[in-house]
Amino acid sequence: MASSLREKQILALKRMLNFNVPATKATSTEPQWKVLVYDRFGQDIISPLLTVKELRDLGVTLHLKLHSERDPIPDVPAIYFVMPTDDNIRRIGQDFQNQLYETYYLNFISAISRQRLEEIASAAIHSNCVTQVSKVFDQYLNFISLEDDMFTLRHQDRDSISYYALNKGDVKDTEIEHIMDTIVDSLFSVFVTLGSVPIIRCPRGNAAEMVAEKLDKKLRENIRDARSSFFTNENIQAGQFSFQRPLLVLLDRNLDLATMLHHTWTYQALSHDVFDLQLNRLLICKDFNMALNFYSKYHLTYIC
Questions:
Q1: Residues 246/196, Cβ–Cβ less than 8 Å
Q2: Does residue 107 contact residue 81 with C-beta atoms inside 8 Å?
Q3: Can you say whether the dihedral through the CA atoms of 117, 198, 16, 146 is positive or negative?
Q4: What are 259-304's pLDDT values in tens digits?
Protein backbone atom coordinates (compact mmCIF):
# COMPACT_ATOMS: atom_id res chain seq x y z
CA MET A 1 0.00 0.00 0.00
CA ALA A 2 1.30 3.44 -0.89
CA SER A 3 2.39 5.48 2.12
CA SER A 4 3.65 8.79 0.75
CA LEU A 5 1.69 11.40 -1.14
CA ARG A 6 3.87 10.92 -4.21
CA GLU A 7 3.29 7.16 -4.25
CA LYS A 8 -0.47 7.64 -3.90
CA GLN A 9 -0.55 10.10 -6.78
CA ILE A 10 1.43 7.65 -8.93
CA LEU A 11 -1.06 4.89 -8.07
CA ALA A 12 -3.95 7.18 -8.98
CA LEU A 13 -2.35 7.93 -12.36
CA LYS A 14 -1.68 4.26 -13.05
CA ARG A 15 -5.28 3.43 -12.18
CA MET A 16 -6.42 6.16 -14.57
CA LEU A 17 -4.20 4.78 -17.36
CA ASN A 18 -5.76 1.37 -16.74
CA PHE A 19 -9.16 2.84 -17.62
CA ASN A 20 -9.85 3.64 -13.94
CA VAL A 21 -9.69 -0.01 -12.96
CA PRO A 22 -7.18 -1.16 -10.29
CA ALA A 23 -4.27 -2.93 -11.96
CA THR A 24 -4.00 -6.70 -11.56
CA LYS A 25 -1.28 -9.18 -12.48
CA ALA A 26 -3.05 -9.91 -15.75
CA THR A 27 -3.32 -6.25 -16.76
CA SER A 28 0.24 -5.48 -15.70
CA THR A 29 1.66 -8.22 -17.94
CA GLU A 30 -0.55 -7.55 -20.96
CA PRO A 31 -1.71 -3.92 -20.92
CA GLN A 32 -4.23 -2.66 -23.42
CA TRP A 33 -2.70 -0.20 -25.86
CA LYS A 34 -4.03 3.35 -25.73
CA VAL A 35 -3.26 6.98 -26.53
CA LEU A 36 -2.73 9.52 -23.73
CA VAL A 37 -3.91 13.07 -24.47
CA TYR A 38 -3.07 15.77 -21.92
CA ASP A 39 -2.95 19.54 -21.66
CA ARG A 40 -0.06 21.49 -20.16
CA PHE A 41 -1.46 21.07 -16.63
CA GLY A 42 -1.63 17.31 -17.07
CA GLN A 43 1.89 17.29 -18.48
CA ASP A 44 3.19 19.14 -15.41
CA ILE A 45 1.60 16.54 -13.13
CA ILE A 46 2.68 13.41 -15.02
CA SER A 47 6.24 14.44 -15.97
CA PRO A 48 7.84 14.19 -12.48
CA LEU A 49 6.09 10.90 -11.73
CA LEU A 50 6.12 8.62 -14.80
CA THR A 51 8.89 8.13 -17.34
CA VAL A 52 8.32 7.39 -21.02
CA LYS A 53 9.27 3.76 -20.36
CA GLU A 54 6.77 3.50 -17.51
CA LEU A 55 4.07 4.95 -19.74
CA ARG A 56 4.93 2.38 -22.41
CA ASP A 57 4.76 -0.41 -19.83
CA LEU A 58 1.26 0.85 -18.97
CA GLY A 59 0.21 0.52 -22.60
CA VAL A 60 0.59 4.15 -23.68
CA THR A 61 1.79 4.05 -27.27
CA LEU A 62 1.55 7.81 -27.81
CA HIS A 63 1.29 10.77 -25.46
CA LEU A 64 0.10 13.90 -27.19
CA LYS A 65 -0.85 17.44 -26.24
CA LEU A 66 -4.53 18.25 -26.51
CA HIS A 67 -4.05 21.43 -28.56
CA SER A 68 -1.54 19.96 -30.98
CA GLU A 69 -2.30 18.72 -34.48
CA ARG A 70 -3.20 15.03 -34.08
CA ASP A 71 -3.91 12.47 -36.77
CA PRO A 72 -6.92 10.14 -36.41
CA ILE A 73 -6.24 6.70 -34.89
CA PRO A 74 -9.73 5.23 -35.12
CA ASP A 75 -8.94 1.76 -33.72
CA VAL A 76 -7.29 2.84 -30.44
CA PRO A 77 -8.91 4.14 -27.22
CA ALA A 78 -7.79 7.53 -25.91
CA ILE A 79 -7.37 8.57 -22.28
CA TYR A 80 -7.67 12.31 -21.72
CA PHE A 81 -6.09 13.99 -18.68
CA VAL A 82 -6.96 17.68 -18.80
CA MET A 83 -8.33 20.61 -16.83
CA PRO A 84 -12.05 21.33 -17.35
CA THR A 85 -11.51 24.69 -19.05
CA ASP A 86 -13.64 26.17 -21.83
CA ASP A 87 -10.83 25.83 -24.38
CA ASN A 88 -10.27 22.19 -23.49
CA ILE A 89 -13.97 21.36 -23.64
CA ARG A 90 -14.21 22.92 -27.10
CA ARG A 91 -11.16 20.98 -28.31
CA ILE A 92 -12.57 17.70 -27.00
CA GLY A 93 -15.75 18.49 -28.94
CA GLN A 94 -13.63 18.92 -32.08
CA ASP A 95 -12.04 15.52 -31.45
CA PHE A 96 -15.53 14.01 -31.27
CA GLN A 97 -16.45 15.65 -34.53
CA ASN A 98 -13.26 14.49 -36.27
CA GLN A 99 -13.69 10.92 -34.98
CA LEU A 100 -10.06 10.78 -33.85
CA TYR A 101 -10.23 7.69 -31.64
CA GLU A 102 -12.18 4.51 -31.08
CA THR A 103 -13.36 5.39 -27.55
CA TYR A 104 -12.88 8.34 -25.21
CA TYR A 105 -12.04 8.14 -21.51
CA LEU A 106 -12.27 11.68 -20.16
CA ASN A 107 -10.35 12.33 -16.92
CA PHE A 108 -10.45 15.84 -15.51
CA ILE A 109 -7.68 17.00 -13.22
CA SER A 110 -10.17 18.85 -11.01
CA ALA A 111 -13.94 18.59 -10.75
CA ILE A 112 -15.89 19.53 -13.87
CA SER A 113 -18.95 21.73 -13.47
CA ARG A 114 -22.40 20.57 -14.52
CA GLN A 115 -22.54 23.23 -17.25
CA ARG A 116 -19.34 22.01 -18.90
CA LEU A 117 -20.43 18.40 -18.50
CA GLU A 118 -23.59 19.27 -20.42
CA GLU A 119 -21.45 20.90 -23.12
CA ILE A 120 -19.52 17.64 -23.53
CA ALA A 121 -22.77 15.70 -23.74
CA SER A 122 -24.13 18.12 -26.34
CA ALA A 123 -20.93 17.83 -28.41
CA ALA A 124 -21.10 14.02 -28.26
CA ILE A 125 -24.73 14.04 -29.42
CA HIS A 126 -23.96 16.51 -32.20
CA SER A 127 -21.05 14.33 -33.42
CA ASN A 128 -23.06 11.11 -33.09
CA CYS A 129 -20.44 9.52 -30.83
CA VAL A 130 -22.29 9.15 -27.52
CA THR A 131 -21.52 5.43 -27.35
CA GLN A 132 -17.82 6.13 -27.87
CA VAL A 133 -17.56 8.27 -24.71
CA SER A 134 -16.96 5.41 -22.29
CA LYS A 135 -16.25 7.17 -18.98
CA VAL A 136 -15.97 10.63 -17.45
CA PHE A 137 -14.03 10.96 -14.18
CA ASP A 138 -13.02 13.72 -11.79
CA GLN A 139 -9.52 12.68 -10.73
CA TYR A 140 -8.76 15.36 -8.10
CA LEU A 141 -5.04 15.36 -8.91
CA ASN A 142 -4.57 19.10 -9.22
CA PHE A 143 -1.13 19.33 -7.59
CA ILE A 144 2.45 18.45 -8.51
CA SER A 145 4.41 15.99 -6.35
CA LEU A 146 8.11 16.83 -6.22
CA GLU A 147 9.22 14.42 -3.49
CA ASP A 148 7.59 11.77 -1.30
CA ASP A 149 5.89 14.29 0.95
CA MET A 150 6.54 17.57 -0.84
CA PHE A 151 4.21 19.08 -3.39
CA THR A 152 3.53 22.40 -5.08
CA LEU A 153 0.37 24.03 -6.38
CA ARG A 154 2.30 26.04 -8.95
CA HIS A 155 2.16 25.10 -12.62
CA GLN A 156 2.72 26.72 -16.00
CA ASP A 157 0.00 29.24 -15.14
CA ARG A 158 1.79 30.02 -11.90
CA ASP A 159 1.39 33.80 -12.13
CA SER A 160 -2.36 33.49 -11.63
CA ILE A 161 -1.90 32.24 -8.04
CA SER A 162 1.32 34.05 -7.19
CA TYR A 163 1.97 36.18 -4.12
CA TYR A 164 2.03 39.24 -6.35
CA ALA A 165 -1.34 38.41 -7.91
CA LEU A 166 -2.89 38.28 -4.44
CA ASN A 167 -1.24 41.43 -3.08
CA LYS A 168 -0.98 43.81 -6.02
CA GLY A 169 -2.52 47.25 -5.46
CA ASP A 170 -5.25 47.03 -8.08
CA VAL A 171 -6.39 43.47 -7.32
CA LYS A 172 -10.17 43.06 -7.45
CA ASP A 173 -12.34 41.14 -5.04
CA THR A 174 -13.36 38.77 -7.83
CA GLU A 175 -9.69 38.05 -8.58
CA ILE A 176 -8.98 37.33 -4.92
CA GLU A 177 -11.96 35.00 -4.81
CA HIS A 178 -10.71 33.16 -7.90
CA ILE A 179 -7.20 32.78 -6.45
CA MET A 180 -8.61 31.43 -3.19
CA ASP A 181 -10.84 28.95 -5.02
CA THR A 182 -7.89 27.74 -7.12
CA ILE A 183 -5.73 27.18 -4.02
CA VAL A 184 -8.56 25.44 -2.16
CA ASP A 185 -9.29 23.19 -5.14
CA SER A 186 -5.66 22.07 -5.24
CA LEU A 187 -5.44 21.49 -1.49
CA PHE A 188 -8.68 19.53 -1.58
CA SER A 189 -7.15 17.34 -4.30
CA VAL A 190 -4.15 16.66 -2.05
CA PHE A 191 -6.30 15.31 0.76
CA VAL A 192 -8.57 13.33 -1.55
CA THR A 193 -5.43 11.63 -2.84
CA LEU A 194 -4.20 11.05 0.71
CA GLY A 195 -7.63 9.77 1.76
CA SER A 196 -7.44 11.80 4.98
CA VAL A 197 -9.38 14.72 6.42
CA PRO A 198 -6.84 17.19 7.82
CA ILE A 199 -6.89 19.25 10.97
CA ILE A 200 -6.46 22.80 9.68
CA ARG A 201 -4.59 25.45 11.64
CA CYS A 202 -3.95 29.05 10.63
CA PRO A 203 -3.40 32.59 11.95
CA ARG A 204 -6.42 34.87 12.13
CA GLY A 205 -7.19 37.86 9.98
CA ASN A 206 -5.30 37.24 6.72
CA ALA A 207 -5.40 35.31 3.45
CA ALA A 208 -4.43 32.06 5.18
CA GLU A 209 -7.61 32.17 7.24
CA MET A 210 -9.70 32.75 4.11
CA VAL A 211 -8.18 29.68 2.46
CA ALA A 212 -8.66 27.64 5.64
CA GLU A 213 -12.33 28.54 5.93
CA LYS A 214 -13.04 27.73 2.28
CA LEU A 215 -11.19 24.41 2.50
CA ASP A 216 -12.95 23.53 5.74
CA LYS A 217 -16.33 24.23 4.12
CA LYS A 218 -15.47 22.13 1.05
CA LEU A 219 -14.35 19.20 3.20
CA ARG A 220 -17.45 19.33 5.41
CA GLU A 221 -19.78 19.47 2.41
CA ASN A 222 -18.11 16.41 0.92
CA ILE A 223 -18.23 14.44 4.16
CA ARG A 224 -21.88 15.41 4.71
CA ASP A 225 -22.96 13.83 1.41
CA ALA A 226 -22.25 10.15 2.07
CA ARG A 227 -23.27 9.15 -1.47
CA SER A 228 -20.41 11.05 -3.11
CA SER A 229 -17.95 11.49 -0.26
CA PHE A 230 -14.29 10.65 -0.83
CA PHE A 231 -13.87 9.84 2.87
CA THR A 232 -16.29 6.91 3.28
CA ASN A 233 -16.13 3.19 3.98
CA GLU A 234 -15.60 2.46 0.28
CA ASN A 235 -12.30 4.30 0.34
CA ILE A 236 -11.38 2.57 3.58
CA GLN A 237 -11.92 -0.81 1.91
CA ALA A 238 -9.96 0.35 -1.13
CA GLY A 239 -7.01 1.13 1.11
CA GLN A 240 -7.10 4.87 0.39
CA PHE A 241 -8.44 6.11 3.70
CA SER A 242 -6.37 6.66 6.81
CA PHE A 243 -7.59 7.37 10.33
CA GLN A 244 -4.41 9.33 11.02
CA ARG A 245 -5.41 12.92 10.37
CA PRO A 246 -2.59 15.10 9.06
CA LEU A 247 -2.07 18.60 10.40
CA LEU A 248 -2.33 21.32 7.76
CA VAL A 249 -0.76 24.61 8.85
CA LEU A 250 -1.59 27.51 6.53
CA LEU A 251 0.60 30.60 6.85
CA ASP A 252 0.54 33.92 5.05
CA ARG A 253 3.76 34.77 3.23
CA ASN A 254 3.71 38.23 4.81
CA LEU A 255 5.31 36.42 7.77
CA ASP A 256 9.02 35.91 7.13
CA LEU A 257 9.37 32.38 8.46
CA ALA A 258 12.66 31.77 6.66
CA THR A 259 14.54 34.16 8.93
CA MET A 260 13.33 32.34 12.02
CA LEU A 261 14.37 28.96 10.61
CA HIS A 262 17.87 29.90 9.45
CA HIS A 263 19.39 28.49 12.65
CA THR A 264 18.73 25.04 14.05
CA TRP A 265 17.45 25.33 17.62
CA THR A 266 20.27 23.39 19.28
CA TYR A 267 23.14 24.69 21.40
CA GLN A 268 25.64 22.98 19.09
CA ALA A 269 24.43 24.81 16.00
CA LEU A 270 24.20 28.13 17.82
CA SER A 271 27.71 27.74 19.21
CA HIS A 272 29.03 26.80 15.78
CA ASP A 273 27.58 29.93 14.22
CA VAL A 274 28.86 32.20 16.98
CA PHE A 275 32.40 30.90 17.49
CA ASP A 276 33.38 29.27 14.19
CA LEU A 277 31.81 31.79 11.80
CA GLN A 278 32.38 34.77 14.10
CA LEU A 279 28.81 35.97 13.74
CA ASN A 280 27.34 38.63 15.93
CA ARG A 281 25.53 37.19 18.95
CA LEU A 282 22.76 39.73 18.49
CA LEU A 283 21.79 38.14 15.16
CA ILE A 284 21.10 34.79 16.77
CA CYS A 285 19.25 36.35 19.68
CA LYS A 286 17.20 38.36 17.24
CA ASP A 287 16.22 35.24 15.27
CA PHE A 288 15.34 33.36 18.45
CA ASN A 289 13.27 36.23 19.79
CA MET A 290 11.46 36.58 16.46
CA ALA A 291 10.45 32.94 16.67
CA LEU A 292 9.18 33.34 20.21
CA ASN A 293 7.26 36.48 19.28
CA PHE A 294 5.64 34.65 16.36
CA TYR A 295 4.15 31.95 18.58
CA SER A 296 3.03 34.44 21.21
CA LYS A 297 1.72 37.15 18.88
CA TYR A 298 -0.19 35.12 16.27
CA HIS A 299 -3.00 33.13 17.81
CA LEU A 300 -3.31 30.00 15.72
CA THR A 301 -6.84 28.90 14.90
CA TYR A 302 -8.07 25.32 14.68
CA ILE A 303 -10.53 24.53 11.90
CA CYS A 304 -12.18 21.24 10.98
A1: yes
A2: yes
A3: positive
A4: 666 666 666 666 666 666 655 544 444 554 555 455 555 445 555 5
Looking only at the bridges linking them, the beta strands covering 199-203 and 300-303 are antiparallel
Helices (H), the chain: 5-17, 25-29, 40-46, 52-57, 86-98, 114-126, 163-167, 173-194, 207-224, 233-237, 257-260, 267-271, 281-297
- At 261 the three-state DSSP class reads coil
How crowded is the C-beta side of 69, counted as CA atoms within 13 Å? 0
What does the DSSP 8-state code read for residue 73? B
Query: Which residues are registered as beta bridge partners of 79?
Result: 36, 105
Relative to beta strand 60-65, strand 247-249 is unpaired
What pTM, to 2 d.p., does this model score? 0.79
For residue 222, what are the β-bridge partners?
Answer: none
The full 3-state SS of 33-71, as one line of letters, equals CEEEEECHHHHHHHCCCCCHHHHHHCCEEEEEECCCCCC
Bridge partners of 68, per DSSP, are none
